# Entry
Amino acid sequence: MATRRRTRISLVTSLVLCVAPLLQAQTSATIVGTIHDAVTGSPLTGVVVTVVGSTMQGVTDDEGLYSIDSVLPGLVKLTAQVIGYHPITTDYYTALPREPLDVDFKLAPVVVAIAGVEITGRRPVREYPGAMVLTSDDLPPRGDILNALQGAVPSISVRGRRDNTRVRARGSMSEVLFVIDGVVTTPPLRFYIDAANVECVEVRRGHLAAQEYRASINSEIYSGVVLIWTKGALGARPRSCFKTP
# Structure
């Protein structure tokens, strides 16, 4: 009898050990996605993606892919960060069991000083008549900077998804050119910059505004230029970007 009892206990234990991982897999969620450079579009490796408020992480491989398993279902926020790029924290997503949650990122590179170059001051860029300048005080505390511009600049219209965004000046069929920390970015726009990381934005309207960057735009016609300076980035800014006490 004792031998049979031990055999039954062993069988039950084995069954529990086999079923437990299956039950966990059915009641937990998985988060997957890709991470690319917002300027070049190249996949980024070594980016750490963390579920905010937990120790659960995933790291991107050589193709920019990451995966986080065994996530508790419900509302989750993610943070993606790697040296040399501005970190991003997402809005809330709903993670569901047995249904992978796909969250992609576009990280904007941090512009750093080049060794051997001495910077003695910041010279304001050329002023454009009628240009609109927004500082961090004029922007929302969080959220996609492109959507923030649509709400803050009456002439800007934003359409499309985060990975294929089109921005136009109302009344024109041409799109708007973007310059992020001095780097020219042509549409379609495939970057995400949180408004919390933006120091200053200047909006220049009209086709002539893009001529300063004609070497980078292959004679394309744009209805305006939006210059974005992120916090901590180097480079000249309009005088109106500097806050006065």
Q: What stands out?
A: The radius of gyration is 24 Å. The longest helix spans residues 2-27. The helical segments are 2-27, 145-152, 214-217. Residues 19-25, 112-125 have pLDDT under 50 and may be disordered.
